[in-house]
Amino acid sequence: MNITGKALFKSFFVNLFLSIFKVVIGFFGKSSALIADGVHSFSDLSTDAVALFGAKYALKPADKEHPFGHGRVEYLTCLIIGLVVLLLGLEIIGTSFQGKFIIPARIVIWMSLLTIIMKFLLSTYLLKVGRKYNNAILIASGKESSADVISSLFVLLSSILMQFSNQYPILKYSNRIATIIVGILVVKTGFDIIKDNMSSIIGEQVSDVDVDEMLAILQNEETVDTVDQFAVIKNGPYFQITGEISMNEKLSLKEVHEVVEQLEEKLKVFDERARYINIHVNPSKN
Fold first, then answer.
1. For the chain, which residues make up each domain, given as ranges?
2. What are phi and psi of 73, to 5 degrees?
3. Start-to-end Cα distance in the chain
4. pTM listed for this prediction
5. Which residues, other chains included, contact 233 with Cβ-Cβ below 8 Å and sequence gap of 6+?
6. Which terminus of the chain is more solvent-facing, meaning fewer CB atoms within 10 Å of its CB: N or C?
7. By CB neighbour count within 10 A (0-12 exposed, 13-18 middle, 19+ buried), where does 55 fall?
8. In sequence order, what are the beta bridge partners of 157?
């Protein structure tokens, strides 16, 4: 199993544990905010399943119908994750106005603390691995887990405030307000995931590598007169590179072919994510 799959499996089992316990403790502890937070974690389970499928399919090699591989499935997967999360947030907000004002049991406070710790560690891990390997799916899952940390903080705060609602009646609204805030945070997370991946699915220039250094590999080749065009496009877990160079028209076809092969190999050595490279050669009289 690759790095992405291992990370997503860890995320799946953490979310499975938290979602079950948050819903059960929220139900018996009479906390609608914790139940909403648990439902959010259940959404993480479904998105983890989608992410596992997308991560595996994105690594599928090129075929006749897809000459540049299936890397952009990664962004489509993230769009599905974002849409599910956004709709879930709207559902949480819609149901937050239902039910009675009940003081939650203190076990809800301890469950919220446990959730904050576990989700913080999980989100930190997913974001670290996702950024290291330039994996949009892990980054999306990490952002979703980060939102869960913030929502759990509001659940914790509301559960503490509700303990004093008999002395201060206005505090009885804290649980309902926390539920609404959780829903808003979930909606924002879903929207951000969709926004971040819309540009990538169309075709976006990479920003996390030094494109100038890659360009210099072409420019430093003595037989290359000029680099007329160069682009490094994100394509899921790897890059698609296109370029145009001008070379002396008196060079033989064999010489030109050898130079292009050497340049492609140097680009792949520079960054192993450079997988699909297409360099076009224009004639130059220099």
1. 3-202, 211-284
2. -60, -30
3. 51
4. 0.57
5. 203, 204, 205, 206, 239, 240, 241, 242
6. C
7. buried
8. none
Nearest to 282 by CA among 235, 218, 220: 218
- Contact between 211 and 229 under an 8 Å Cβ cutoff? The reply is no
Please report, in tens digits, the pLDDT of each residue of the chain (286 residues total): 567 778 877 887 887 887 788 788 878 777 766 777 776 666 666 666 666 666 566 566 666 666 555 666 666 777 777 787 788 778 777 766 665 666 777 788 888 888 889 889 988 998 888 888 777 677 877 877 787 787 778 778 888 888 888 888 888 788 778 778 877 877 887 787 787 777 666 666 665 566 778 888 888 888 888 888 888 877 666 777 888 888 888 888 888 888 888 888 888 888 777 777 888 888 876 6
CATH topology of domain 211-284: Alpha-Beta Plaits (3.30.70)
CA dihedral 263, 269, 273, 275 (to 10 degrees): 40
CATH class of 3-202: mainly alpha
Tokens of 187: 């909606």
